[in-house]
User: Fold these one by one.
Assistant:
Number 1:
Amino acid sequence: MRLILLLSLFVVAFAAELPLAEECDETKCLLPRCRCSSTNIPGGLAPRDVPQFVSVTFDDAVNVINIETYREVLYGRSNSNGCPAGATFYVSHEYTNYVLVNELYNRGYEVSLHSMTHQTPQTYWAEADYDVLVKEFADQKSLMSHFALIPDQEIRGVRLPFLQMNGNASFQMMADSGLVYDNSWPTVSHVNPGLWPYTLDYASIHDCIVPPCPSASIPGPWVIPMISWSDLNGSPCSMADSCYFTPPLDDENAWYNFILTNFERHYHGNRAPFGFYIHEWYLAVNPAVKAALVRFMNYVNNLNDAFMVNANQIIEWVQNPIPVSEYIRRPCRRFSSTPCRATSCGPLRSEHNGLDYWMQVCNTCPRVYPWLGNPLGR
C-alpha cells in the first residue's frame, strides 16, 4: 500500500508540469489525430462490418534460439485477403542479435521497443523519470535503426518491461521521440465489450492495474489496450503465459479451445483487437501450446473478416475506419527492405558491468557494448 502511495505522489509531482487531462469532448476529439477512450467501435460501424484484428506479439531479446520458433510458426503466413500475416516484436537490447532483427523486419513484421536494459527491480520502471526513459527507449530507437538497419520512422511502438506503467513520463517521452503507440497497459474492466485504441488528449476511462497511470493531457501517442484474457477460473491475465488456471500444458486441443474462447469474446462482441501476447520460451517448453497457437493462426488466416496484423496497422485502421468489405480490397502494406551485411563484433567490453559481449550487427562494430547513455557504443 505504501508503494502505491509513493508512486501516486510521484506521478502527481510529474503531472504538475503538464496540463491535467479533462473529460473527453467527442465534438473536439476527432480522428485521425484524437480519439476518446471508449468501447465504441471507431467510425460507428456495426460489429459485423468491422475487421477483427489479431495482434500476435513476442517480448524480449531476439537470438539464434528463439528465431527458430518464429520461423516455424510465423513465416509464410497470409491472411484471407492475400496480404502477409503480421506480428510484432517488442525487443529488449541485451543479448539481441541485430542481424536476426533485420531478418524479421525484412519479412514484414513490426519491430518495436522493450527497453535498453529491461532491468530489475520493477520499481525502477515505475519511478524512472523522463530523462531515464529517453535513454531506455528513444536511444534504443536510434540503436535499433543503426544496428538492424531499420528506418527510424518504421520503429513506432513501446511495451514497458513488466507492463509497469510510469504515469505521464513514458508518454511524454513518446510524444517527443516520434513514437506512435504504447502496448503496455492492461485492462480487466473493459473486456466485454473491449476497449479500443485511443489517444491521451483527454482523460481515460482505462482502469489502472499497474500504477502509476497517466493523468495529464498528452496529445500524440496512442494507447493499444492489452485486453485481458479470462483463464479457466475466470481470472484475468494480460499475457497468455501469465494465465494461472490454464488447460494442461500438454493438451493441444484444450489449449486451442482456450485460445478460441478468448478470441470469440472479441469476434462475437465489439471486435476490439484481440491480443495473443506471449514470450517465446513458453512455446519452446510447451510444444502442445505452440501447436495450439499454430492451429489458431491457421483458423484466423482462413476467416474472411479476421486479420493477423502488425500493431501499427491497427492504429492506422482506427485513424481511418472502413468496413471490412473495403478493407479486403485495399492494397497490401508496402515497405522497403534493407539488406544486411552481417558483421560479428566482439568481445566488446561493457562499461556498465565490465563483462564482454558479442554482437551480430548490420553495420560497423561499436567500440564498446552499447548501453544507457551510449546507444551506439562509441
Number 2:
Amino acid sequence: MNNQKQQKPTLTGQRFKTRKRDEKERFDPTQFQESIVQGLNQTGTDLEAVAKFLDASGAKLDYRRYAETLFDILVAGGMLAPGGTLSDDMTRTEFCLFTAQEDLETMQAYAQVFNKLIRRYKYLEKGFEEEIKKLLLFLKGFTESERNKLAMLTGILLANGNISASILSSLFNENLVKEGVSAAFAVKLFKSWINEKDINSVAASLRKVGMDNRLMELFPANKRSCEHFSKYFTDAGLKELSDFARNQQSIGARKELQKELQEQMSRGDPFKDIIAYVKEEMKKTSISEQTMIGIVWTSVMSSVEWNKKEELVTEQAIKHLKQYSPLLKAFTSQGLSELTLLLKIQEYCYDNIHFMKAFQKIVVLLYKADVLSEEAILKWYSEAHVAKGKSVFLEQMKKFVEWLKNAEEESESEEEEAD
C-alpha cells in the first residue's frame, strides 16, 4: 500500500490580477463632447431637430456617465471650468442656451428640449437638478445676458416641475448675495415662474421644500427686512411676491406669538401681564383684533390635556373657559372679533368630535361672561355660520336663540312703554 499522499491536481495558465469587467473605465469626456458638439452644429437653431438628435444619441452615447458634460454643452456651448468659464482645450458649439435669443418664447422652447430629454432618459433627472444648482453658483462667471436667459429658463423649469425649488439654496451663497447677483437673478426667475403659473402655485412649491421662509436670504444681513424685500420686488414689478413674503413673515410672527402665549399660560402668569404683552405685540406686528382672538382661542384650547370621554370633556371645557374668559374678553371689543371667535368655536367643536355636544354650553358660558354679545350670537345663527357641523350646532342653539329674541322683544316693548 502506497502511504504517500496523492498530489492534488493544480490549474495552470496565466493569472490576471483583475477581471476586465472590474476595471474602471477612465473618465474622458473628449469624444463624448465632440459627438454632441458635432450634432448641435448640424441641427443649428432648429430646437425640434436638437431634441430628436439628443433622443437618438442617448442610445449610442453614455449619457449616464457624461451627464454634466452634456448639460454644460447645451447651456454654455462647452464644458465649464470651476467659476463658470469655458474650458479652453475643448471643442465648443455656438448653438446653445447662452447664445440663443434673450426672450421668453425661446427659453420656453429650450425648456421643452430639456423636458423631452429628461422624460426620455429618466436617470438624468438628478444630474440635471445638480447641474442647475452648479450653474447658479457660477452666476458671477456669466454675462448679464447669460444670467437673464438662465433665470428665465430656471423659472420655466420650476413651473413645469422639472426641478425642485430646493435649487434656490444656491442663490443664498454669500458672494452672490453680497454683490446683489442673487436678488437680480431672482427677479427674472420669479417673473418667468409666475408668468407660467401663478403666485399660489409658486408658494406651494416653495413651502414643499421649506423655501417659503428663506427668501429674505437673497439679501445681505443688513438688508434682510420685510420692508427692504417688499420695496425691492415691488419696484421690480413683483408685488405678489412681496405680498407673499410679508404674509409669510406675519405667519411666522403669529406662530411665535402663539408659542410665547402658551408658555405664559403654562407658567400661570397673571392675565393682566399676558394681556399687556399681547396688546404690545399687536401694535408691533400690526395684527388685527380679529386675528388675535383666533390666536388667543387656539392658545387657550391648546394649554390643557382634554378628556377623551364626551360626557366629561364638556364639564372640563366649561371649567377651563370660565377661568380664561377674562383673557378672551380682552380681545372681543369689536363685533367682528366676536363673530371670529364664534366661528373658531364652531370649527373647533366640529374638528374635535368629543366637543360636538359642548358647543351650545360654551357659547352660553361666554355670553354670560360678557365675551359674546346677543347681537353676535344672533348674527352667527342667522347668516354668519360656516358649513362645518351647521345643522347640529344650529339645532343646539335653537332654544337659546329663541330666548335671546324674546328677551330682546321684551326689552324693546318695555322701552316703548317707558317712552
